[in-house]
Amino acid sequence: MLGAMLVFCQYAAALAIGSAIGFIPHLPIVKYMIIALVISLLGGSIIASPKIWQFWREGEPHPVGRLVREADRAAVASYIVGFQLVSWQMGALTWLKDMLPAVIPYWADPGLASLERAILGTDAWRLVPEWLVRPFDVIYVTWALVHTITLIFILCLKPSPIKARAMIAYFLIVGVLGVCGQYLLSSAGPVFYDRIVGGAEFADLTARIVVHAPFVGLGVEMLWTSYSAHTDQIGNGISAMPSVHVATSAWIALALSSFRPKLRLPAWGYWLAIFIGSFALGWHYLLDAVVGTLGALGCWVLAGRLLSGETQEEEPHALAPVG
Q1: Alpha-carbon span 140 to 273, nearest angstrom
Q2: pTM for this one?
Q3: Which H or E run includes 265?
């Protein structure tokens, strides 16, 4: 319910801002919902497969029917509704990101770039060796898959305070941290700097991307075309501060570390790869990644406070998958 309230507040904010500036787009909400339904059903089918196989091995003539009869319907409903809430939140985020340059034109890029150079003595992306750019380019595009698998895993778990904390933290990260940060420090990021601000300060970065980061190059052109034509597409919108990719990667690490301590090292290793990749590929300034990480940690703590600290008392046996 708290997650639903947070999503409702996002839409209320988007509707208020959109009405004020006359920006009420035809968002692809139905597409988001269909995609979420397909992903949730596919993920649920994969997770249910071992149980069906077990029933079949036991001689059950109708293993699927038995699974349906024995399934915890409340848990199944929660799983599907959870995915739908995530899809609605992504729709609200797209709407708010689309409106960002109309409400607060990108203004923070020069300051963020100057601050980064003052601290590091150069642009953060220059600190990453050129031979590492292509590996980061490949790793970065896995974010959507890893993010989705983590959501499937968490939503399939039995109800527990730690599961509630993880999902509340997720909605806070995307709906509060992401949106508020974007509107407070409206910025486009290094890859769009020269197109937004003008000049050729990041010409070397652009040349590096053309040679070593084909996925980034494709993404940049798709986003810029959508931005220029004002089209309503899934994943539309340009915004750098804070890095939601990094923030949600930190959330993945926090959640998996809580549910499965053995996954702590690979989970935080993945966060580190996304963290470095965010500025190595020019999507973000280093400060965007730092704020995204610290913001995710703050949302995790806040989610625990909202649940009165009950998550800290949760025992591992309550975290077994539903069914």
Answers
A1: 8
A2: 0.82
A3: helix 264-280
Largest CA distance in the chain: 71
159-165-169 Cα angle (round to 5): 135
Neighbours of 304 (CB within 10 A): 19
pLDDT at 51 > cutoff 80: no
Write the CA distances from 60 to 52, 53, 160, integer angstroms. 9, 10, 32
**Partner residues linked to 157 by β-bridges:** 321
Q: Which two tokens stand for residue 299?
A: 């949302």
Other C-beta atoms lying within 10 Å of the C-beta of residue 78: 18
Cβ–Cβ under 8 Å, residues 235 and 87: no
- CA-based angle 7:241:89, to the nearest 5? 15
For the chain, the helix, strand and coil percentages under 3-state DSSP, each to the nearest 5: 75, 0, 20
Can you read off the two tokens belonging to residue 258?
């809580």
* Cα 32–Cα 270–Cα 235 angle in degrees, nearest 5: 20
Helix (H/G/I), strand (E/B), else coil: 24: coil
* Cα–Cα distance, 263 to 258 (Å, whole number): 9
Q: Return d(Cα 188, Cα 143) in angstroms, integer.
A: 20
Question: What letter would DSSP give residue 62?
Answer: -
Q: Among residues 299, 170, 190, 169, which one has the least CA distance to residue 240?
A: 190
Exposed/middle/buried for 288, CB within 10 Å: 0-12, 13-18, 19+? buried
What digits encode the pLDDT tens for the residues 115-143? 999 999 999 999 999 999 999 999 999 99
Q: How many CB atoms lie within 10 A of CB 64?
A: 13
Can you give 110-158 as a three-state secondary structure string? Answer: HHHHHHHHHHHCCCHHHHCCHHHHHHHHHHHCCHHHHHHHHHHHHHCEC
